[in-house]
Automatic annotation (TrEMBL):
<feature type="domain" description="Methyltransferase">
    <location>
        <begin position="43"/>
        <end position="140"/>
    </location>
</feature>
<protein>
    <submittedName>
        <fullName>Methyltransferase domain-containing protein</fullName>
    </submittedName>
</protein>
<keyword id="KW-0489">Methyltransferase</keyword>
<dbReference type="GO" id="GO:0032259">
    <property type="term" value="P:methylation"/>
</dbReference>
<dbReference type="Pfam" id="PF13649">
    <property type="entry name" value="Methyltransf_25"/>
</dbReference>
<dbReference type="GO" id="GO:0008168">
    <property type="term" value="F:methyltransferase activity"/>
</dbReference>
<dbReference type="InterPro" id="IPR029063">
    <property type="entry name" value="SAM-dependent_MTases_sf"/>
</dbReference>
<keyword id="KW-0808">Transferase</keyword>
<dbReference type="InterPro" id="IPR041698">
    <property type="entry name" value="Methyltransf_25"/>
</dbReference>
Length: 181
């Protein structure tokens, strides 16, 4: 799929993508540096977008791991399905607030997210936070890319341990929030 087509989707649906451009390779690498993929068997990505984070996850995950990628844009889902046609990568064209319905009770090792939480209605945002915390293993991590440090305080209601990192190597510069229970 042409990159121009993906950029068009990004701008047409800015309320759901929440970004003016896709995540830089530098941001993806920094985000994923906080995740321990060794032995992580069930991994969830919230907001697959153009696949830049998905690609980084697939390159790092064990061959017997399963990655569930949640994306609400049908356009992005079609593109992701073409890019990642593999039995251990599941592209799910549905809202992240329904993640529990697709995981069938499986505990999750890692949740990696680029969801625009500041644009998501409070009720949906709360459901995503609560369900993420419930399905995450006690040793698991929820790692979020965001553009506002204030988002950290929303996560504090659901996760007891929160760290943040920052990178200028993205447009716009971004925060990474690393959470666990």
């Amino acid at each position: 799929m042409k990159k121009s087509s993906l950029f068009k989707e990004l701008f047409v649906n800015i309320k759901t993508t929440g970004a003016v451009t896709f995540s830089s390779k530098s941001l993806v690498n920094k985000m994923l540096s906080f995740a321990d993929f060794n032995g992580a068997k069930v991994i969830v990505e919230l907001g697959g977008g153009d696949g830049s984070i998905t690609r980084g996850i697939v390159e790092r995950m064990d061959s017997d791991s399963v990655l569930y990628v949640f994306e609400i844009s049908e356009h992005f889902c079609r593109n992701l399905s073409r890019q990642f046609a593999s039995k251990n990568v599941k592209i799910i064209c549905d809202s992240a607030e329904n993640l529990d319905k697709h995981l069938n009770g499986q505990p999750v090792d890692l949740i990696l997210s680029s969801l625009p939480f500041s644009l998501i209605p409070k009720e949906s945002r709360t459901a995503i936070y609560e369900k993420s915390r419930l399905i995450l293993k006690p040793s698991g991590f929820f790692i979020q890319i965001c553009y506002s440090y204030l988002l950290r305080f929303q996560f504090a209601s659901y996760f007891s341990n929160i760290k943040t990192a920052f990178t200028l190597k993205n447009f716009p510069p971004a925060f990474i929030i690393i959470c666990n229970t």
